[in-house]
Amino acid sequence: MKKNMSMFAMCLVVLFTLACLLPGWETPAYASTNLALGKTAVASSVKNSALAANKATDGDSTTTRWGSNYTSSEWMYVDLGSAQSVGSVTIKWGVAYATAYKIQTSSNASTWTDVFSTTSGDGGVDAITLAAAATARYVRVQGITPATTYGYSIYELEVYASSGTTDPGPDPGEEPERDASFGPNGTHWPSLIPTPFMYDTTVANIIDVSSSWTAISTAIAAVTPEQAAAGVLIRIAPGTLTGNGAGSGNTPVLQNLGSSSWTKRITVAPRDGYGTVVISGGALIKNVRSVAFAGLIADQIKLEGCDRSALAWSKVTRWLAGYGIANQTTSMVEFTEVVMPDSQVVDGDASDFYSVSSGPIDGWRFDGIYLAPHFFNPATTPKPHTDTMQFAGSGAYSNMTIRDSAIFSSNNCSIQTGSLNGLILEHSYLAAGSVARSRYPFLAGGSTEAGTAAFNGNGTNFVALDSVIIGGMGSASWTSVTNTKTSYVYQASQQPSSGAWTVDTTLSATNPTMPPMPTDTYLNSIWGN
Questions:
Q1: What's the CA gap between 72 and 69, in Å, rounded?
Q2: How confident is the model at residue 2 (pLDDT cuts 50, 70, 90)?
Q3: Any idea where the F5/8 type C domain is (predicted)?
Q4: Strand 153-161 vs strand 75-93: parallel, antiparallel, or unpaired?
Q5: From CA 161, how far away is CA 167, in angstroms rounded?
Q6: pTM as predicted
Q7: Phi and psi at residue 18, to the nearest 5°
Q8: Closest alpha carbon to 25 in 165, 133, 160, 129
Q9: Which secondary structure element, helix H or strand E, spans residue 521, and what is its range?
Q10: Is 425 left (phi over 0), alpha (psi -120 to 50) or beta?
Q11: For the chain, N or C: smaller number of CB within 10 Å?
């Protein structure tokens, strides 16, 4: 069988080479290095372990391959490791090829952009030059219509940069380059949408305002689409911003501002650097679009219906929340290096991220966050439910990414996933049980119940990469697991479709080294101007 497949593959190569010489065939203009070679690949399904997604990036285009389940909507993507300028993609199909499919790119593996599509695929080798180079870390083949009843099979997925291009890196004065960590380290900045850096003095439009909600609202309302595209940084003078409470029934401090059509966020941050503007009394920010708030200290803050907005480089002392809003999808929201450093006795979650009826949330990213636990008061009736991070809601909530983050369990768990559809846990640290209690012991007046679960709840299409999970697992369905350590031997129903958990019963408060404690001294050192 291997001999026959090799001959078949050789014929394809010969046919492809001859086809390149025919009039009208454009030879792809790409650099010679295959950016996907040896990189991590993730798939919606694998028929068996011998057909894992990584077989399509191992450099062997004749004997090893990815093979999906026998359904039409299967996909696989490759993680290039960092953002690259992608100029062309080559797919070396097996017998089970796609007649209709898309090539998609992404910066976060949750929100995808179509860069190529066809409805006339004929198998063999597809060498595709993109109409325009796309900057992306992730490249996906999304199947639409299979040619056979056997799903899809790819011997090799290759990705090439545009000829002569290199990754230019960040522009001078813009956000720092990410350095993988567990928790904040001053190298993460909102990037799903271009976002002016809070200390960038070269931003085209710098607007200084007093420390008042009215001044901030007036400045945002005055921004034109042309100014937003050029770059806007609104700098707040030192002071205290008094809120009206962060609950949905409270009066918003900012409302109905910005625009989802802006191609770049505007940034609102303290003029004199992190910590010089403090929010007291809780703040509800509602339906404010394409705005990044950064460098703040707040007791409670909630972004509600804030499509394409962000909160970054901020300390929250009591409650953090992001909600959807009715009659729209709230997407591409980012919480970047947002820190809740201290445990408390509170009858509620440390952070909540909710959809609402007819108001789904989708494609959010939590990057470099650090969340300490809440412990409920055992005298409270009925008994409260406390999670450190909870996803829930009456509408759909999907495609969340948690990266470079550290989350310690409350009485119930570290992360309550509810019925979340789509989670990427990348290079993150979740701790429950005795390890979590070594940093955050139960508090006087607080419950000592449970606290041993890293995850709780259901959910589907979960992926784990390069992470550490110390504690119990909920009932979620894991599509793929790569290089992720766990302290438990999980049940059969908790095993991934592709890959495997790496069980390490020696995981402890010192193995691996616990994430840095985000003291004020530490936060000033990484976020200060």
A1: 9
A2: very low
A3: 20-162
A4: antiparallel
A5: 9
A6: 0.70
A7: -65, -40
A8: 129
A9: helix 520-527
A10: beta
A11: N
Position 27 pLDDT exceeds 50: no
Contacts of 222 (CB under 8 A, 6+ apart): none
The C-alpha atoms of residue 174 and residue 56 are separated, in whole angstroms, by: 36
For residues 268 and 245, give the distance between their C-alpha atoms in angstroms, rounded to a whole number: 20
Tally of CA atoms within 13 A in the half-sphere of 483 that contains its CB: 10
Sequence-ordered alpha helix ranges (H) in 277-392 = none
**Are the C-beta atoms of residues 225 and 261 closer than 8 Å to each other?**
yes
**φ/ψ of residue 245, rounded to 5:** 100, 150
Provide the residue type at 42 as one letter.
V
pLDDT of 175 above 80: no
Residue carrying the six token digits 């708030």 = 293
The helix (run of H) or strand (run of E) holding residue 84 is strand 75-93
Cβ–Cβ under 8 Å, residues 163 and 89: no
**Residues contacting residue 123 through CB under 8 Å, at least 6 positions apart:** 93, 95, 97, 147
Answer for the pair 478, 498: CB distance below 8 angstroms, yes or no: no
Place of tokens 């055992």: 378
For residues 270 and 235, the answer to whether their CB atoms sit within 8 Å is yes
